[in-house]
Amino acid sequence: MEATRMKKLPPYLFARIEKKIEEAKEKGVDIVSFGIGDPDLPTPDPIIAELCKEARNPANHQYPSSVGMLDFRREVAAYYQRRFNVELDPRSEVVSLIGSKEGIAHINFCYVDPGDINLVPDPGYPVYGIGTLLAGGEVYVLPLLEKNGFLPDLAAVPEEVAQKAKLLFINYPNNPTGAVAGKEFFEQVVDFAKRYNIIVCHDSAYTEIAYDEYRPMSFLEVPGAKEVGIEFGSLSKPFNMTGWRIGWAVGRADVVECLGRLKSNLDSGQFQAIQYAGMVGLRHSGQLVKDLCAIYTRRRDMVVDGLNRMGWNLKKPQGTFYIWAPVPKGFDSASFTEYVLEKCGVIITPGNGYGQYGEGYFRLSITIPEERIMEGLRRLEENLGKVEF
Ligand SMILES: *Cc1c(COP(=O)(O)O)cnc(C)c1O
I want to staple 282 with a disulfide (CB 3.0 to 4.6 A). Which of 77, 79, 251, 268 is the partner? Predict the structure, then answer.
């Protein structure tokens, strides 16, 4: 018998579409997939070279510290100083993670007791809500609406909910909507968190994936942020390192300490050679990220221009490698996803997989080569013609 907590997990919305993808592949259909948000390009060479070198050092073959090597934490602090002008104490305000997903899930076990409430954006990265539920907490949904620029309306959270809330999850640049947030919003978040004694968890996975001179800020740049929360960071997206599993949490010292204490009881940190390799990425982040974003810019323009030619009216996102778009008239998220798979052999992600407020949308990930993007767009145009809403 499975534990009751497993029954609290929401139904897996992609199961039906994944079955259809399997079937299409078995039939030998050539599939163009805009589905998965996982970089297609390789990890940059200097990072791989560092891993190879450090993998040969026996000192790295033993258990690492679960909070990360001090050198790694220093490199994260140096990056924050350089990139955001934010000062961090590497000993007390930085903890390494086995990918930021690990920390985002585990922070719930640090602060959520059964019956507690977390404020969770919808649509959003599913781990915020799932981590909440596994810790016995309850999710209060913060709708991310297009008319609000996909920012949550904190003033709309009922007083009694805010009083009971433990954690507030936010994520900008945002997966799946591609929305970005500025200083004004982060200031509102700090005020709100202070008023209700809520811990802010900002997921900054896409802080380096941005376009047209726009440079996303860190939540910690806002005065008072370090007293109310932490920021999760990841090497996965800026350096094409999703398979390597390395990230961090930085910010409020007692929260960083609590997460580190939990981790020291659960895991033994990330392989030191991977930490050394990640440090090389951080040290060279300026150029590496510039090169990567130049590639994503061309892909983004191709997709948005292509869809707009078909009748969409999309603005180019300023961050992330996702395009978030409404489904045409006569469809919902699921039926449109199935339609384009069956008619075009094209995979898109149904918006309702990211929550109820994602219904009516779909997400395209531009983590595929330009010629596949062209092919995908050609098939969509051929089958859909001009779309209406
Ligand atoms: C990809 C992603 C992450 C994290 O990735 P890790 O590989 O676990 O560091 C976190 N949040 C969002 C919104 C993401 O899309």
Answer: 79
Q: What's phi and psi for 248, nearest 5 deg?
A: -155, 165
Report the CATH number that the domain containing residue 310 is assigned in CATH: 3.90.1150.10
* Residue nearest atom 11 of ligand 1, based on CA coordinates: 205
d(CA 289, CA 280): 13
Is 206's pLDDT higher than 80?
yes
Q: Is the CB of 367 under 6 A from ligand 1?
A: no
Domain that holds residue 141: 45-284
Q: Which two tokens stand for residue 213?
A: 């001179």
Claim to verify: residue 120 and residue 214 sit in the same structural domain: yes
Pocket of ligand 1 contains residue 234 by CB under 6 Å: yes
Measured at the alpha carbon of residue 68, what is the angle toward residues 228 and 225, in degrees to the nearest 5? 15
Instruction: Give residue 100 CA to ligand 1 midpoint distance, Å.
Output: 6
- Shared domain check, 213 and 77: yes
224 and 278 fall within a common domain: yes
Residue 235 Cα to ligand 1 midpoint, Å, equals: 9
Q: Which residues contact 63 (CB under 8 A, 6 or more apart)?
A: 268, 269
Cβ(238) – ligand 1 distance below 6 Å: no
236 lines ligand 1 (CB under 6 A): yes
284, 307, 340 — which closes off a domain?
Answer: 284
- Give the tens place of pLDDT for each residue, 105-132: 999 999 999 999 999 999 999 999 999 9
Q: Quote the number of domains for the chain.
A: 2
Which range has the worst mean pLDDT, 1-10, 13-22, 51-60, 144-153? Answer: 13-22
Q: Ligand 1 centre and the CA of 237: distance in Å?
A: 8
Residue pLDDT, tens place only, 128-156? 999 999 999 999 999 999 999 999 999 99
| Nearest atom within ligand 1 for CA of residue 97 | 9
Query: Do 254 and 177 lie in a common domain?
Result: yes
- Count of helices and strands (H, E) across the chain: 14, 12
Contact at 8 Å (CB) between 365 and 317? Answer: no
